[in-house]
UniProtKB/TrEMBL annotation:
<dbReference type="InterPro" id="IPR011032">
    <property type="entry name" value="GroES-like_sf"/>
</dbReference>
<dbReference type="InterPro" id="IPR013154">
    <property type="entry name" value="ADH-like_N"/>
</dbReference>
<protein>
    <submittedName>
        <fullName>NADPH:quinone reductase</fullName>
    </submittedName>
</protein>
<dbReference type="Pfam" id="PF08240">
    <property type="entry name" value="ADH_N"/>
</dbReference>
<dbReference type="InterPro" id="IPR020843">
    <property type="entry name" value="ER"/>
</dbReference>
<dbReference type="InterPro" id="IPR052585">
    <property type="entry name" value="Lipid_raft_assoc_Zn_ADH"/>
</dbReference>
<dbReference type="InterPro" id="IPR036291">
    <property type="entry name" value="NAD(P)-bd_dom_sf"/>
</dbReference>
<dbReference type="Pfam" id="PF13602">
    <property type="entry name" value="ADH_zinc_N_2"/>
</dbReference>
<feature type="domain" description="Enoyl reductase (ER)">
    <location>
        <begin position="10"/>
        <end position="293"/>
    </location>
</feature>
Length: 295
């Protein structure tokens, strides 16, 4: 099969498409024939060597939508099941940017009904990151939340999920993203016009101390890069989410997508053979929705 990997770190030109053996599922694993797989900023970080792994062949890709075509012992899935999954891991020999991928059975959820694979592939990583970050904050209905980077994938899911839970959400984004942010159920702010006094902030734009300064004394801050949260001040509880694969939680998010609560946004699709072009487009910035590989 074909798979997208890096064997040396660098820019988009470091990405390679190689021929490699089709992986076999072990106990409590399934193999998915990939129909679509999203490209995320974390893939660019892996490609650039942010997470280590020098000298290894590293597979790229975390999100997958497709069809189970092989099942290991003890895996409660069937060949032919249409699914989505998160394939966690920064340094792994094969990722989801491939024609087949093996994942743990408990990382898998049924694919959202009535949604094509390309859109379904944008859900696992970003929505799980958003909901697990909201878990860290522990907000209740009626409390206030500032989401930075609210027009992005993680920020957009976080804003929508929080608003759906009855939280009063304000989204910080670029001026031309106002319509999008408001469609998520959030108030809109831009630039330095952000007020203070929020019960919590979910810092998807990685503003650090600038975002922390908008939280009330004794509030909460959640970052999206493990180990990169600012130091606590004024009694603010500070943490950062490290996303984990969770098929049961992913199934809850799938249901919200089916109900139309979560909008699945696709910016552009690419073949695996155009992996360098896809990485170059991601590096340009300003992408709204996800770039998605269609093997």
């Amino acid at each position: 099969m074909r798979a997208v990997v890096v064997e040396r770190f660098g820019g988009p030109e470091a990405v390679e498409v190689v021929e490699t053996a089709v992986p076999q599922p072990g106990a409590r694993q399934v193999r998915i024939k990939v129909a679509a797989a999203a490209l995320n900023p974390v893939d660019a970080g892996v490609r650039a060597g942010v997470f280590g792994g020098a000298g290894e062949r590293i597979g790229l890709g975390w999100d997958v939508a497709g069809t189970i075509d092989a099942v290991g012992t003890g895996a409660a899935w069937n060949v032919g099941d249409e699914v989505v999954a998160l394939h966690y891991g920064t340094v792994k020999p094969l990722g989801t940017h491939a024609e087949y991928v093996v994942v743990d059975a408990d990382a898998v959820a049924p694919a959202p009904a009535g949604v094509d694979a390309v859109h379904a592939a944008t859900l696992p990583l970003n929505a799980l990151t958003a909901v697990q970050a909201l878990d860290l904050l522990g907000l209740e209905a009626g409390q206030s939340l500032l989401v930075t980077g609210a027009a992005g994938a993680v920020g957009g899911y976080a804003a929508r999920l929080a608003a759906h839970q009855g939280v009063a959400v304000t989204g910080l984004a670029r001026e031309d993203d106002e319509e999008l942010v408001r469609s998520l159920g959030a108030e809109f702010v831009v630039g330095e016009a952000v007020p203070g006094g929020f019960d919590a902030v979910l810092d998807a734009a990685v503003l650090g101390e600038r975002a922390l300064g908008r939280v009330r004394d004794g509030g909460a801050y959640a970052g999206v890069i493990p180990g990169a949260a600012p130091e606590s001040v004024r009694g603010v509880r500070v943490g950062a989410v490290e996303v984990s694969a969770d098929g049961a939680r992913l199934a809850e998010l799938v249901r919200l997508a089916e109900e139309g609560v979560l909008a699945l946004r696709v910016a552009e699709t690419f073949s695996l053979g155009d992996a360098v072009k896809a990485h170059a487009r991601l590096a340009e910035g300003g992408v709204r929705g996800r770039l998605v590989f269609v093997p």
